[in-house]
Amino acid sequence: MKKYLYTALITTLLFLVAGWFDLFAFADASPDSTGAYGTWISLIPPLVAIGLALITREVILSLFAGIWVGALFLVGFNPIAGTTQSLDVMIDALVDADHIAIIVFSLLLGGMVGVMSRSGGTQGIVDVLEKFATTRKRGQLFSWFSAFFIFFDDYANTLIRGNALRPMTDRLNISREKLAYIVDSTAAPLAVSAVITTWIGFEITQIQNSLANLAETTTDAALATQLQAGADNAFIIFLHSIPYLFYPILALAFVLMTIIMRKEFGPMLTAERRAYSGGGVIRPGSMPAADTSLEQLQPIKDKPKLWYNAALPVLSVIVVAMYSLYSTGASALEPGESGITSIIGNADPFAALLWASFTGCAVAIALAVFQRILTMNQALESWVGGMQSMLMAVIILILAWGLGGITGEIGTGAYLASLLEDSLPLALLPGLVFFIAAVTAFSTGTSWGTMAILFPVVVPLAVAMGAGVGFAGGEHYGILLGSVSSVMAGAVFGDHCSPISDTTVLSSMSSACDLIDHVRTQLPYALVIAVVALIVGELPAAFDWIHPIWGLIAGLIILYGILKYFGEDPESVPES
User: Which pTM was predicted?
Assistant: First the structure.
């Protein structure tokens, strides 16, 4: 009861504070208005949602509170109109074509997992892995390495691995929080830094458009030529920026370090000790984002538990997704374009994932029915049960997208981007961009949205301040690369920390972990990595003190030292 009182009290207090500042100017707000659009007040709705979620652990109520507060700003503080506006925002989020694709993909994948579980395929996988993943360390290592088999898309990586690995990690008494962390911190960092992923087309297009638009508007003919040359070689700029992706690369390495060294700290240490000591893989009283206890998901007794009834559907998802990415990308190529990177960059990832998940469902049902493990009626019941287990996460996703829509309407991203417009020393730009990108992604819950907001601001600003003159190999080229990579790295970092991020929700859903428990255990690790990345990576590389490779090496050494001296083995008995 106290949670709900806290929620009502804090929301009411913020409402009164907002009224004090006469924020009903939002009723006529627009990007061109002179009202409160794009001011610091626009941070209030995401802060309400995030703060309440962390305090009360009531995610759905907290997200709706954030949407409602933002809606009040838009309708002149009319509570009835604000409630109506809140519902309209959620409907708008739901009818977005890409959002529908993600929901359907998640539901279909959940249905596939339901059939795999009911037919005994998941249990068969667990039985096979018992021969290899005999310890907690080996189980976590297998979970980490599995990321590289589904590197091409962060959504597919998250959903497939979490659902497939959960039975194994449960058997080994690995906490759901640790599984969610492994899944989350190896999905987006891999997708943003690998060359052949569904992210690359978006990233290259953002770089290219930013430079091309600047070339069209500048009055300096020589600079315009250089800018256009940079736009034509946006892929090369992206490749050169990869060593500057300090946070994603260090995040991937840090997950592996915690596994090999068997060291944890903070809330993750508590969670791992609880799981290892038999206190449960989830916190007592927690609310997992997916319900795996449904009767339709339990294997039928006296039926064979065959590993390939789970392996073949998952393999079919991967194969069809890769083929679909290739086919949609190849058909969308412009004249003169070629190469696998261009093909993947032009692909339609949402269509590919939908076809792949549907194929996985069909393969799972066909295997179960043709082997007479399940009747068609039982297979369809388990399929529906699997989708039903995803209902909580789908609701959270819709609310998170709705909050993202509200932050867009009141100019949260525009305000954060405007902070970069003040003059500052050129070498500090990459570090400041990383911070602004992180705050933007944390507040809006989207890494792609953050990149879309900041790339058109950061690239022209960096060039105007003298970065990238002559481009490849030119003066201050490293500043331009650092600024570009900081947008991507900061977006991933903020996304990792935010309870309203779609990938955070999907990681919790696939791992059947409480969303806030996942955020609380991952947050200290993400913050430590970000601070190290900023101190030994972003700033030294920008000042040209060291090559970025040396910054990565220094970061790895520091993170190793932090784990060694501040981490503890969760399997050891703590001193009284």
Answer: 0.77
